[in-house]
């Protein structure tokens, strides 16, 4: 049985997925517990993408038991109106998967430290997108740049009104984040017409009740990395 592992090295977390004979069997946030488990697992290949060079170096130094191949972009594989050299490898591989699967026109939303929004039109052309602060980043920045407001964990679930300062922060940050994401989804109607919405990343499940017809797949990026690695 061929076992392969892929990593997405982000600004906050390192996410991984284990594949056995092309099927994902395990995924999550990479931790010391997972590391010890992988040291006992015979792996054929290990691939990664990274949006943070410092974290990548540290990750490689701390995981020398893995022969990690860092994936690079092949810009010629997608048609884009974006500055291809500046398009992040994480966005590149998800756009490429969308094109390979022929699930366009589409909006791909990747939630994390920063949220990214990528629009693909009916001709399979990536017309560009947006980058915004992620949910946790919004909460941290408000606490950082104000004197009397403390950092809170944004409340997820039903949108409601806060009855005290802590609730006002929790519900306010969450509501602003949700409505912001919804507005980018609605913008897609004007930019590319009727389209599929694909949501991935650590906060994907929080949007399930607000983007009713969206494809919610927290591991879409990890699957995209694996498919890219297998076909280059």
UniProtKB/TrEMBL annotation:
Chief location bin: cytoplasm
Recorded catalytic reaction(s): these are: (R)-pantothenate + ATP = (R)-4'-phosphopantothenate + ADP + H(+)
Q: Name one GO biological process term.
A: coenzyme A biosynthetic process
**Transmembrane feature ranges:** none
Binding positions (K(+)): 110
Pathway, per record? Cofactor biosynthesis; coenzyme A biosynthesis; CoA from (R)-pantothenate: step 1/5
Q: How is the cofactor bound?
A: A monovalent cation. Ammonium or potassium.
Q: Any idea which residues are catalytic in this one?
A: 90 (proton acceptor)
| Keywords attached to this entry | ATP-binding, Coenzyme A biosynthesis, Cytoplasm, Kinase, Metal-binding, Nucleotide-binding, Potassium, Transferase
- EC number(s) reported in the record: 2.7.1.33
Binding-site positions, substrate = 82, 88-91, 165
The protein's matches in InterPro entries, at most eight in alphabetical order, are given as: ATPase_NBD, Type_III_PanK
Assembly with partners or alone:
Homodimer.
Quote the PANTHER family the UniProt record gives. TYPE III PANTOTHENATE KINASE
Q: What does this protein do?
A: Catalyzes the phosphorylation of pantothenate (Pan), the first step in CoA biosynthesis.
Protein name as catalogued: Type III pantothenate kinase
> Which organism's genome codes for this protein?
candidate division WOR-3 bacterium
């Amino acid at each position: 049985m061929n076992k392969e592992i892929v990593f997405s090295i982000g600004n906050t977390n390192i996410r991984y997925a284990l594949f056995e004979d092309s099927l994902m069997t395990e995924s999550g946030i990479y931790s010391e517990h997972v590391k010890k488990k992988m040291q006992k697992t015979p792996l054929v290949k290990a691939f990664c993408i990274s949006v943070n060079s410092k974290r990548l170096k540290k990750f490689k130094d701390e995981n020398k038991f893995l022969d990690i191949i860092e994936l690079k972009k092949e810009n010629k594989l997608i048609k884009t109106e974006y500055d291809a050299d500046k398009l992040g490898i994480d966005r590149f591989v998800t756009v490429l998967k969308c094109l390979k699967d022929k699930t366009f026109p589409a909006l791909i939303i990747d939630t994390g430290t920063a949220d990214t929004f990528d629009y693909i039109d009916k001709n399979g052309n990536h017309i560009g997108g947006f980058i915004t602060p992620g949910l946790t980043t919004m909460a941290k920045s408000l606490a950082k740049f104000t004197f009397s407001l403390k950092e809170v964990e944004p409340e997820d679930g039903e949108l409601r009104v806060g009855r005290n300062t802590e609730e006002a922060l929790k519900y306010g940050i969450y509501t602003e984040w949700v409505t912001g994401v919804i507005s980018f989804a609605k913008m897609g109607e004007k930019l590319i017409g009727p389209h599929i919405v694909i949501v991935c990343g650590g906060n994907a499940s929080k949007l399930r009740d607000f983007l009713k017809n969206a494809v919610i797949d927290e591991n879409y990026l990890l699957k995209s990395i694996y498919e890219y690695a297998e076909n280059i």
